[in-house]
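Customer escalation, tier 2.

The customer says the design service returned an amino acid string that "doesn't look like it belongs to this structure." They asked us to rerun it and document both sides in this ticket. The original structure tokens are below, unchanged.
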């Protein structure tokens, strides 16, 4: 199965969250040639720049709209479609996490920013780590959300969680992957956002998703290089994330000198949807 939790989130967020903060969806899409590909992006200009790198299979609209809105009141927020996803094209280059990081760095340079803070969510966190390691001159602060260092040193999901990922078209399974059952029952208004759509199509271009699947599977990770990260870093995890177990955050925090570690109690892989106000507040405090 080629789709993932984030691919489904992207689809549902576009249709269900748009009514909350329409500017994320109604703002014009800009496109620019970056090497061999054309990249689609949106910019909400306010202050110092923040580049937000979406997760597996997710177009730029997959971000929680409240978080984007709150951040855009304080910072210049740049959201974009990774290659082969949404409105960004792709090429015949061998897909890799390093290539996706290069795309992001080239985008930053092309649209005229000298340095950006970088936020990566899930697989976007893989890309953000490679960005910070390979392009330190472009990197301000670093935000790693619901992610790991990858490679053999990271802690994989359980067999049960992997089995769940193979049935993501079932809304009940999706909710179990994203959130604790007790939390879901206590927050039915959030659960409704993920069960109110009848469409189960994957978001993004199938080749782009397949390329990301290949890239994530072949990524050797950053464990041996994490000590080289000099950017101020915050690591945010849900204590009950079954896709990227919370212990992965400790590996990152111990290796990145001086990093902040925030563990959100009862948070799942969908912590950004569970606690958008809290996460936005944390990020604004950290970035300021």
């Amino acid at each position: 199965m080629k789709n993932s939790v984030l691919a489904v989130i992207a689809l549902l967020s576009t249709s269900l969250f748009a009514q909350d903060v329409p500017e994320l969806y109604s703002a014009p899409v800009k496109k620019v040639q970056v090497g061999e590909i054309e990249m689609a992006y949106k910019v909400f200009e306010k202050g110092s720049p923040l580049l937000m790198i979406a997760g597996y299979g997710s177009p730029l609209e997959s971000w929680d709209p409240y978080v984007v809105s709150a951040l855009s009141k304080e910072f210049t927020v740049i959201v974009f479609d990774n290659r082969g996803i949404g409105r960004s094209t792709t090429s015949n280059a061998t897909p890799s996490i390093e290539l996706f990081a290069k795309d992001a760095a080239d985008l930053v340079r092309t649209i005229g920013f000298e340095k950006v803070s970088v936020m990566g969510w899930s697989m976007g966190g893989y890309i953000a780590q490679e960005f910070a390691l390979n392009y330190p001159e472009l990197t301000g602060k670093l935000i790693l959300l619901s992610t790991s260092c990858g490679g053999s040193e990271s802690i994989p999901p359980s067999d049960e969680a992997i089995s769940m990922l193979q049935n993501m078209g079932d809304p009940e399974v999706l909710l179990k992957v994203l959130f604790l059952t007790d939390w879901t029952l206590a927050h039915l208004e959030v659960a409704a956002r993920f069960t109110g759509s009848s469409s189960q199509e994957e978001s993004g271009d199938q080749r782009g998703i397949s390329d990301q699947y290949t890239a994530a599977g072949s990524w050797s990770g950053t464990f041996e290089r994490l000590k080289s990260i000099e950017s101020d870093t915050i690591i945010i995890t849900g204590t009950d994330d079954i896709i990227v177990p919370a212990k992965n955050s400790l590996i990152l925090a111990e290796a990145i000198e001086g990093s902040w570690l925030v563990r959100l109690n009862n948070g799942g892989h969908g912590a950004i949807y569970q606690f958008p106000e809290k996460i936005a507040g944390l990020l604004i405090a950290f970035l300021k």
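Tier 2 assessment: The sequence is consistent with the input. The longest helix spans residues 97-110. Confidence is low (pLDDT under 50) at residues 1-20, 197-204. Sent an explanation to the customer and offered a walkthrough call.
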